[in-house]
């Protein structure tokens, strides 16, 4: 595999001629590069007017490699051919170099260019590209590649020090200006090299000409800098960004990288530049910001191929769902503003935006019921988009790169209600979307006041979180966050929220239970044009007097687990579970026409044939459960036999008065209302293997958390187990 390197544009804030004078002092040897033994000029040519000069050198490098490898290779030095073309008229220096040693086994090619800055003729730009292709090397191809890349990266970092050293040396000697070339000028003399040792060469080295970096005028990374200094640095970097980010053909400047993206190794810079260039060539129109590209590279440890794959998938997703315009087009519903217990709150000690989530106070089930998964996901995406925007703002305010935020999660109040299975499933979907499209945006996660139930939730969620992200989690139980190593190590005391014992008022909503009157059916949610997923986990159904709604579940493996969760939106029903060895006939849908009723939503399916006999054709496996309007019911049934299971919601007939056989007045009045013969239920079912479910079921049974446990004796088998809970 060919290894490639592409440097950013590195800028010297010195004239081209002065930089050239410093560059020539590197020859014939350079004490700042111990491996650079010597160099000979083997060919030299100057144009008649002296404007162009071509110099070819043969350079020897003493590469730092294992002694065994040197013996196998049979060389002490690696020889390179370097060809320099200096054009004084155009003010450019082009450098090409390749390896002479082992050229039939290893191909190393490097090109460098010094040129005048396009916006400031008193500055000098430097660019560098290189490639390494190891075809064969005595079975040590991988070792040689690692040695070459390591030493090449080291020499690139060293390049800045070398050029700055010689510029300082020229300044100490009183040389601060070199006149530009004119037709009457004489060519600058070149220092003559000393003779080379005739010692044999060794392992290939990628570099002859080290790269250079930008000498910063101000230290923009100093967090203690004065505001005026930060503002000056920010303005300077802003103007530089405008210069360098104007067209698709623009190139990244090393000063811009350091100021806005952070300290990157030369190879990391190369990955960023190459991926950015590939996007410019293959993606028409707008490409992601450099900070966003860098996040995907970091998420894949700067493996360019892997980062490119997930980035392209994310770009397609963003375009498909118009995520780039989310902050302008998305308006949070009032229920989110009132009951979603999360919000932005100042910043942490590192300048990262701080997001606070009071998860323990959040009614996750109520939010899913009232909003649907799509709206909840879109709200979470808007939070992430806002986080990206705040990172950009803080980068300008604090004068240093800030690419991620800190999240503080308060679990006070977390209980088994938060382990509501559909809610956890929705949470896992949200995590999946965020992990895929917002990598490396979480700098630190502070989890406070974790209760005993937290390990259960963590077990469910952690497998879906990237390993690099999990390493950023800090978990505190009880009041441990108040002691040394706690919250004050990461957040200034002045901005610790009041509900955590601080003095700063926090505008995050306190949450509470979402009123059931705000719950909506699956059809109502589906009609809203906010879908980011292709399915909803809830279905709605209508139940009529004489026309129950039934759901068929086929069980292949005995001891499977049927789980259910449903809300009674209107009316009272009796919930039953039946088992049959026979497959029911294709379902009959009651279109409600027989009742003279038309419904805007819901459906009614009947599976049990009227000719079937209870106890012969099918059997009841759970005691009937009466469910009142407004109740939420969760439960499970561990099956004993394979076959067909039928979940049934049946209209609940009001019992007559116990003191007389006459009907009650309320019953008589209810029969006059056609709508009283209709119930609405919103439900979700899932089948799991018992080995996958027992842990969750045990957890649910261990704590009711406001739910009342219903003990239902089985009628057909003492080995059939059921767990049901009702929230009133």
In short:
With 728 residues, this protein is an alpha+beta fold.
Write structural notes for this entry:
With 728 residues, this protein is of the alpha+beta class. Strands 1, 2, 3, 4, 5, 6, 7 and 8 form an eight-stranded antiparallel β-sheet that branches. The chain has a six-stranded antiparallel β-sheet with strand order 14-24-16-22-26-25, covered by helices on one side. It has a five-stranded mixed β-sheet with strand order 9-10-11-12-13, covered by helices on one side. α4 crosses α5, α6 packs across α7 (290-299) and α7 (290-299) packs across α8. The radius of gyration is 36 Å and the shape is elongated.
Overall average residue pLDDT: 78
Radius of gyration: 36 Å
How far do the termini sit from each other? 65 Å
- Described by the principal axes of the CA atoms, the overall outline is elongated
Number of strand elements: 26
Helix content: 25-40%
Uncertain segments are 190-249, 529-536, 591-601, 657-675, 694-721
Structural class: alpha+beta
- What's the tally of helices? 17
Task: Characterize the biggest β-sheet.
Answer: 8 strands, antiparallel
Q: Beta-strand level of the residues, as a percent range?
A: 15-25%
